Amino acid sequence: MVRLADELAGAHGATLFLVDRATLRPYVVYNLPKGYIAGIGTARVGTRCCGRAVAQKRPWIVSDMLTDPRFADGRNGAVAGAVRAAFSVPVLNGDRAIASLACHYMEPHSPSAIDIERNEVFAKLISIALRGREGTPHPRAVLCMAGFGACSCWLLGLRSDRPAKAFQPPSHSRCCRGQMAIPPWK
């Protein structure tokens, strides 16, 4: 879903940030420079593009990261990764924001209404995938739909108390060919 969001919005890369208390952690990163992700690190809910989308529970647009004063604390990452614009939609579970889905651009950009609407639909699907039977986020959701022509490689997961060796992500040689990066939880 992250890669589809990127491709259909004509973006350079996309991310899925998961809410972890008062912060957002990059969890699925598609086709973005490592310098950008390292430079922005974890964001606080209410800051930058993704944090504002989560806090306000509505889409948020930063059409130029280098000039928008609301992105000042993430500017070093934007410069390091040559990323200039992004838009983010919240992933909601009922009335609670659990993640954000964002598309990133290498030049100043404002998304179309259809780009935002499409990503809101993807966010709803991501929310459903993360839900457990009781309506809470599922502890592990790993779906790789490589059998569908265009890659819909979807690596979603949440923290788990299980030992790391209990979870082995699948090989993505048939779908995203390793373009998906999953930062480890700390």
What is the fold named in CATH at topology level?
A: Beta-Lactamase
Number of domains: 1
Largest sheet at a glance?
7 strands, antiparallel
Cα-atom Rg, whole angstroms? 15 Å
Helix content: 25-40%
Order of helices and strands: HEEHEHEHEEHEEE
Shape: globular
Strand content range: 25-35%
Number of helical runs? Answer: 5
Unreliable stretches (pLDDT < 50, length at least 5) are 133-177, 181-186
Describe this structure in words.
With 186 residues, the protein is α+β, with helices and mostly antiparallel strands. The chain has a single domain, classed as GAF domain (Beta-Lactamase). Helices cover 26% and strands 28% of the residues. The strands form two sheets. Strands 1, 2, 3, 4, 5, 6 and 9 form a seven-stranded antiparallel beta sheet that branches. Strand 7 and strand 8 form a beta hairpin. The longest helix is centred in the middle third of the chain and has 18 residues. The protein is globular.
How is the secondary structure organized here?
Elements: H1 2-8, E1 13-20, E2 23-30, H2 34-40, E3 43-44, H3 48-56, E4 60-62, H4 75-81, E5 85-93, E6 96-105, H5 113-130, E7 140-144, E8 153-157, E9 180-181
Antiparallel strand pairs: 1-2, 1-6, 2-3, 2-9, 4-5, 5-6, 7-8
